[in-house]
C-alpha cells in the first residue's frame, strides 16, 4: 500500500474501534466531573426531585465523597527498582541495571507523573504509560534518552475484543495533542489543519479549539515479522511511516557504503556520493570495546578476501530490539471482560447522589426552621402607630389565636442516614478511619488500631500490587531502551555498603556475550533478569521511622557493642545513609579518633622511646639549670 492507502486504512481502523469503545469513552467525562464536584444534578429519588418544568433538581451544597475517598487512597511513594539475575554470573550486571534505573527515576519527572496517575487511575479505572526513546534529547557527549509520559484513557483507542494486555493486540492508536511548532521540529512538516479533537486534552464541556494546537494520531501495530510498526498522521498529512519502528537506522553512502553518523552531512565525506537511510540488523565494530565492568569485545580481524587481498573483518553485533509496544496499561482493579479496571467513581456514584439529595433536604429544613407568629384573621385588627407594643384585640377568642411557634428543624434522622450512606461508600472501597488517619472510636488500643489499618490495607492490596506490577514493567521498558539505543557510556552514581558515593558507568556492551559458536548476542533476549519492585520502599522513605529503628537496633547491640568505636562508626554510617543531619561530620570525627587509636596500638615501642627521650632531655635541662644556679650562688 502507498501512503494514501495506509492513511485511509488507519482512519477506517480508528473509526471502527472508536465506535466500539464509545460507551467507555462516554463515561470518562462524567467520572472526571464527579471527582471535581461538578455533577450537581440529583438523580430522582422522590417525585419532588423534578421541578415543575421537568428538569432535575440541583443541589446547592455538595459534599464530594468521591474526591474525599479517592484522595484517601493517594500514595505518593514511588516504587524503587529491584533487578534479580537468574544466573550468579549476572549479579554484577543486575546491580548495574538497578543503579541505572534508580538514576533514571531521579532524572525523570516521576513525582509529577505518579501524582497524576494516583488520581486518574482510580477515577477512570486505569491509565496508560508511554515509554519512548527520544533521539532529540542530546548533550555534549550523548545522543538520545528515555522519555516517560502518562496518557489519559480517552487518548488511547484499543483494538476491539481484546481485554487483556496491550501486547495481545494487533494495533493500538494514540491521540496526542501537539503544537504545530513541535510537529515541524520533529517531522519537518508544516501542518495547516485545525485541532481535530480538542477534547482529548480536557473535558468535553471545557475543550475549545486552540489555534496553535493539532491532534496527532499515532498507530503502533504488529508487522509481518512480529515486530512493531508505526504510522502517524495529522488530519490528511502523513508524518511517519515505519514498518519496523524499533529497528536501527543508519545513513550510508550509496556508492561506497560508508556509514555516516553526522546528521548534518548531505554527501558522503569519503567519496562525495549520495546518502540513503536504511535499516541495520547488525553493528560493525572495527575498534575493540572494553567496558568499565570488564567486558571485552574485539575489533576487526585481519584476513584476505576471495581475490587474496588483505581485508579487515569487523566484529558483528546484532542490534537489540525490544519488540514491544511503547505503551502499556496500569489498572485500578482488574475486571473480567473489560480492558480498563473498575472505577472507584463508578462504584460510589449512587452514594454521592444520595448524599447530595440528603444535603439538599437538610438545608431546606434548616432554612424553613425558625419562629412563626399566629394572629386572628380580622381586618380591623390594629397596632397603635405611636407605640408598637400595644395591640388592640376585641375579644378573648381573638387573643387565644395569638401564639408563637418554634420550628427547630430536627435533623437527627437525616444526619444518621447521611452518616450511614457515607460509611457505605467507604466500605465499598475498603477505606476505614484508621486508613484515613481519622479518629477511630471502634479501636480502643494501639494494637486494635494497627489491626484495623491492616484490614483496610488488605482490601486495598490489589491496587498496590497492580501499581507495583506497572512500575516493574516500566523498569523493564527503560532497561530495554537503554540497552537498545544508548550507544555512548552513561555515568551513574550509586552507594556502597558504607554509604559512600560509588561512580559507575552504564555501557550497553556489557549486555553482550559470545556463545559457543562464536556469535555475539544480547543477553536481554534470554530474559536473564527479573524486574520487580523493592518491597522495603515504604519504610525506607519514612526517614524518621528509620532513624528510630536504627537507634533501637544500636541499643540492642545489632551494630556491635554499643560503646565500641566500630559500633559507633557503623551506626553513624547507617544514619548518614538515611540522611540524618550532621551524620557525615560525626562519622568522620569517629573515624579520625579510631585511626589515632590504631596508630598508638600498632607502634607502642616508638611512642615509648620518644617519651623516654623527652624525659631524658628534660632531666638534662633541669640539671643544667640547677648547676647554673649553684655557680651563681658561689660567685
Describe this structure as you would to a colleague.
A hairpin with a 4-residue loop joins strand 2 (126-138) and strand 3. The radius of gyration is 38 Å and the shape is flat. The model has no long low-confidence stretch (mean pLDDT 85). It has 18 helices and 27 strands. It folds into six domains: 3-36 and 108-245 and 325-341, no CATH class; 47-72 and 348-368 and 411-459, no CATH class; 74-107 and 460-535, no CATH class; 250-318, no CATH class; 370-407, no CATH class; 542-602, no CATH class. With 635 residues, the chain is an alpha+beta fold. A five-stranded antiparallel β-sheet has the order 4-5-6-7-8. The protein has a three-stranded antiparallel β-sheet with strand order 3-2-18.
- What is the number of beta strands? 27
Average pLDDT confidence is: 85
Please give the order of strands in the largest beta sheet.
4-5-6-7-8
Domains counted in the coordinates: how many? 6
Assembly type: single chain
Low-confidence stretches: none
Instruction: Specify the helix fraction band.
Output: 40-55%
Radius of gyration: 38 Å
Largest sheet: 5 strands, antiparallel
Determine the N-to-C terminus distance: 127 Å
